[in-house]
Amino acid sequence: MNILLVTIGFDEKFQIRALMRRFKEIDKVVIVGYFNEERAKKALESFINVINTAGVSYELLEVNPYSFDDLIVRISKFINKNKGNRLIVNLSGGMRILILGVILSFIINYVDAEIEVETEDFKTVVSIRLKDLMPISLSNDHINILKAIKEGYVSINSLHSYLKIPLSTVWRRVKELISEGLLTEDLQLTYRGKLLLKIYESNFSMD
C-alpha cells in the first residue's frame, strides 16, 4: 500500500498540492495534526473534502504537541504498524514541533520513508529518502574508493591498481559501501554516496 502522510495546521493548501501530485499513486492519506483550534478544524474539513472528491481513503492521527513523548509514541505506533508499506511524508505544513516529532519518530524507529517539503513560494519541492541521511562511519579507504569511482574507476581491479590497496581490501570495502547504500551493484554512486562525498570534500575545501 502507498500511504501519503501529511502534517497540517491552520492552512491546507500545501496538503492539497501534495495530494494532487500524488493521488494517482497513493491508496490512503494519513493526516497528522492537532485540531483543538477552530482554524485547524476548518483547514482539516477543507482538506478532507478534497480527499473525498479525489476518491482516496483517509485516516486521522490526532496528536498533542504539548506532550512530546506522547506525540513520538503515537506516531511511532503508526510507523511500526505500516513498516511494510511505502510511506510518503509531506512536511510542508503544521506546527514545527509536530514536524520535528514526525522526523524523529522515523529516525528512532529506523524506518525509511520519502520525505518531501515544498517551499513557501511553491517553486520547489525537495524530496529525499530518510535512509540517505542515516548516520554512517566511513574509513579513509571508503572515502578514497568513492572518490576514485567518481573519477571513473568502476571495477575492483581498476580501484586496486589506482589506489594501491590490496585487492581483498578493495573487495571488502566495496561490499560495505553497497550494503550501506552508497554504491549500486555495478559500482555507481547512489544519491547517498554522492551526498556524503560532497560533505567530505567540503570539509577539506579551502573555500
List the helices and strands and how they pair.
Blueprint: E1 2-7, H1 13-22, E2 28-33, H2 38-54, E3 57-62, H3 68-81, E4 86-90, H4 96-109, E5 114-118, E6 125-129, H5 140-150, H6 156-163, H7 167-179, H8 191-203
Parallel strand pairs: 1-2, 1-4, 2-3, 4-5
Antiparallel strand pairs: 5-6
Helix pairs in contact: 3-4, 5-8, 6-7
Count of DSSP E strands?
6
User: Which second-level CATH architecture of the largest domain applies?
Assistant: 3-Layer(aba) Sandwich
**How many helical elements?**
8
As laid out across the biggest beta sheet, the strand order is 3-2-1-4-5-6
Kindly identify the CATH topology of the largest domain. Answer: Rossmann fold
Helix/strand class: alpha/beta
- Unreliable residue stretches: none
Q: Output the radius of gyration.
A: 21 Å
How would you sum up the global shape? elongated
User: Strand fraction band?
Assistant: 15-25%
For the biggest sheet, the summary is:
6 strands, mixed
Level of helix content? 40-55%
Q: How many domains comprise the coordinates?
A: 2
Question: What is the terminal-to-terminal distance?
Answer: 46 Å
Average pLDDT over all residues = 93
Helix-strand string: EHEHEHEHEEHHHH
Q: According to CATH, what is the class of the largest domain?
A: Alpha Beta
Protein name: CRISPR associated DNA-binding protein, Csa3
GO molecular function: DNA binding
Keywords: DNA-binding
InterPro entries: Csa3, Csa3_N, WH_DNA-bd_sf
Task: For the structure shown, list the relevant keywords.
207 residues, alpha/beta, Rossmann fold, Arc Repressor Mutant, subunit A, 2 domains, six-stranded mixed beta sheet, 8 helices, 48% helix
